[in-house]
Amino acid sequence: MLGGSAATVILNDKNIPEPDAFLAIDPKYGGRIQHDEKGYVFGAPELLAEISASSVADDLGIKKELYRKFGVNEYVVWRTKESAIDWFILRNDQFESLAAKDGVVRSEVFPGLWLAASALIAEDFTTVRQVLEEGLKSPEHVAFVEHLAKNKSA
């Protein structure tokens, strides 16, 4: 997997957003992005995230539509002023909210990527880390890693 923060993501020659973070499957394992020698990301990563204060309207409007159009699978927006985290998943070419279960949002694109959203908002980083570690030990994450390993190209 590949990830980054404050990265330039080039979707096409007219759309070059700079999300606060991204997570992508390495192309060697079936992912769809590419990198150039300067570190720019070409193509839509599987997951993009924004930390949003004054830019909520753009992040939930223009950027959300742009990311939908280019096929970003999951999109996370942390609305800091509202103390809320929205996690969207692309289904049938539309973003839907990914609901928390027992206070934890579980990525469908990256099985085992679990976020205790309310703990993050409350700055309870111990719980955030514990939940993440639990997700990374889950059977679905183990299966995901095995699946990626089987798809590795030379």
Descriptive overview:
It contains 5 helices and 11 strands; from the N terminus they run ββββββααβββββααα. With 154 residues, the chain is α+β, with helices and mostly antiparallel strands. It has one domain: tt1808, chain A (Alpha-Beta Complex). Strands 1-3-6-7-8-9 form a 6-stranded mixed beta sheet. The mean pLDDT is 92.
State the gist of this model:
This protein has 154 residues and is an alpha+beta fold.
What's the SSE blueprint?
Blueprint: E1 2-5, E2 9-10, E3 21-24, E4 34-35, E5 41-42, E6 47-52, H1 56-59, H2 62-69, E7 74-79, E8 84-91, E9 94-97, E10 105-106, E11 114-115, H3 117-121, H4 125-136, H5 139-150
Parallel strand pairs: 2-5, 6-7
Antiparallel strand pairs: 1-3, 3-6, 4-5, 7-8, 8-9, 10-11
The overall number of domains is 1
Could you report the average pLDDT, rounded to the nearest whole number? 92
- CATH fold type: tt1808, chain A
Main beta-sheet strand count, sense and barrel state: 6 strands, mixed
Highest-level CATH class: Alpha Beta
Shape: globular
Q: Count the helices. How many?
A: 5
**Ends: how far apart?**
16 Å
Report strand order across the widest sheet.
1-3-6-7-8-9
Q: Strand share of the residues?
A: 25-35%
